[in-house]
Design goal:
By secondary structure, the protein is an alpha+beta fold. The chain has two domains: about 10-115 and about 270-285, Tetratricopeptide repeat domain (Serine Threonine Protein Phosphatase 5, Tetratricopeptide repeat, Alpha Horseshoe); about 125-240, ADP-ribosylation fold. The protein has nine helices and seven strands; from the N terminus they run ααααααβββαββββαα. Strands 1-4-7-2 form a four-stranded antiparallel β-sheet. A three-stranded antiparallel β-sheet has the order 3-6-5. It is globular and about 60 Å long. Keywords: Transferase. Pfam families: Arr-ms. This is NAD(+)--rifampin ADP-ribosyltransferase.
């Protein structure tokens, strides 16, 4: 499934996060439970389970939900969710610590600290800008940001979602028209740390960065564009420095701080974390849940 912020489940999660930020955890959890109930595939259920888990007051319930989220992520097993493996392993380890299960806590802490693997996303990839480019041109790091005039970019950012590149083009500085180019990385690339495990678990927006040039190989001429009202809202977010939703638009820092429920023992800039076959089999011993585990708050009718 391709990530879409207009998706019903994603919208419910966003509404729940908004209530959470306002100090209304019960209302937030009702939205997250509704997202779980309305989810129609493993990716949507994974997203909902992630948010339900972090609001559980009882550690056993929290552990069940984090295990549920991990099992669903393993079912999806693509670059949109692999970045969430490390934090999921960490939060499961913390739950086991609270339950005085030293051995399982050790196992999951070790999994959380496994070396990062590189994204295996095959694209196609897109880059949005107002620059006039042709096939064969190279986009290189070390240039000024499209969005902040005094910021030199140490990386080139790109995405596998064409609408994200289209939005980036619409908000870019310059007098040229909005252009979305099809690009190919010429070297290694990594998950964009400005968005991976920030607002959403993993890297569902499939946003990446590289220090190697991007080669322009084509151009997209038709994509779903934002309305003037939507663009106005995005410009307000840019002005307020709230562009974390799509990193190709705002990259104020190479790494940004983020509020978490607990401080993770893994590095945000490590990208997705691999998992061992032994641990995968250990996790898969229990059947994939047909019903969600019960939470600490009452579920809305």
């Amino acid at each position: 499934m391709e990530f879409n912020q207009n998706n019903t489940v994603i919208q419910l999660c966003l509404q729940g996060m908004n209530l959470e930020d306002k100090g209304q955890p019960e209302g937030a959890l009702r939205h997250f439970f509704q997202a779980w109930e309305e989810a129609t595939n493993d990716f949507e259920k994974f997203m909902a389970a992630w948010y339900v888990a972090r609001l559980q007051l009882d550690v056993s319930d929290r552990l069940k939900w984090y295990h549920t989220a991990l099992q669903l992520a393993l079912e999806v097993n693509n670059d949109a969710v692999k970045g969430a493996y490390a934090p999921l392993h960490f939060y499961i380890a913390k739950c086991y610590e609270e339950l005085n299960n030293v051995e399982n806590a050790r196992i999951y802490h070790e999994l959380a600290l496994l070396p990062a693997s590189r994204p295996a996303d095959q694209g196609p990839f897109y880059h949005g800008t107002r620059a006039d480019l042709r096939a064969g041109d190279l986009l290189t790091a070390g240039r000024m940001s499209n969005y902040q005039p005094d910021l030199v970019m140490n990386h080139i950012y790109f995405t596998a979602l064409v609408y994200g590149a289209g939005l980036a083009a619409a908000l870019a500085r310059g007098n040229g028209g909005e252009r979305v180019y099809i690009v190919e990385p010429t070297g290694d690339f990594e998950d964009d740390p400005n968005v991976t495990n920030k607002k959403f678990p993993g890297n569902p927006m499939r946003s990446y960065r590289t220090q190697y040039p991007l080669k322009v190989v084509g151009e997209v001429t038709d994509w779903l564009k934002q309305t003037p009202e939507q663009l106005q809202q995005w410009r307000k977010k840019l002005a307020a420095g709230k562009g974390e939703v799509i990193s190709q638009i705002v990259c104020k820092q190479e790494i940004v701080s983020v509020r978490r429920i607990s401080v993770p023992a893994w590095s945000f800039d490590r990208g997705p974390c691999g998992f061992s076959t032994v641990m995968y089999l250990h996790i898969r011993k229990s059947a994939k849940p047909n019903h969600p585990p019960q939470g600490s708050f009452a579920k809305s009718p």
